[in-house]
Amino acid sequence: QVQLVESGGGLVQAGGSLRLSCAASGRTFSRYAMAWYRRVPGKMDEMVAVISEYRGITYGSAVRGRFTILRDNAKRTLYLQMDSLKPEDTAVYYCNADMKVWGPGTQVTVSA
Predict the structure, then answer these.
(1) With bands split at pLDDT 50, 70 and 90, how would you rate the model's confidence at 26?
(2) Which of 98, 19, 102 shows the shortest CA–CA distance to 52?
(3) Does residue 54 have a pLDDT over 90?
(4) DSSP characters over 31-73
(5) Burial class of residue 112 in the structure, from the number of CB atoms within 10 Å of its CB (0-12 exposed, 13-18 middle, 19+ buried)
(6) Which residues on adjacent β-strands are paired with residue 69?
(7) How many helices and strands (H and E) does the chain possess?
(8) pLDDT (tens digit per residue) in 78-101
(9) Which of 16, 19, 51, 64 is the most buried (most CB within 10 A)?
C-alpha cells in the first residue's frame, strides 16, 4: 500500500507563495487519483484540488486561479503550488491517494 508524507508547509505573509510536496512510497503511484484537502478546526474538511491518474484536474472554488496541482509520476510526488495566499488559506493540508490513504499533514499559516 502506498504511504504519503507531506512537506513544504510554513508561515507566509498574505500575497506570498508556498509549494507543498507529497512524497509517495510504492510503485503504483501513477495508478492513483491524488488530492489535496485542508482542515481547519471546527470546520468540515475542504477539497483543495484533485488530479486523476489521467491528469484530469478539479479545483475547489476557494482556490481556483491561485493554486496549481501537479504530479510527477517518475518521482512519485504530488505538488501543490499556492500563490496569492490569503489568511483564510491557513489550515493543515493533507494529500491522499484515492481517498483511501492519507498523509500526516503539513501546517500552512498565512499572516495578514
Answers:
(1) confident
(2) 98
(3) yes
(4) GS-EEEEEE-TTS--EEEEEE-TT--EEE-TTTTTTEEEEEET
(5) exposed
(6) 80
(7) 0, 11
(8) 999 999 999 999 999 999 999 999
(9) 51
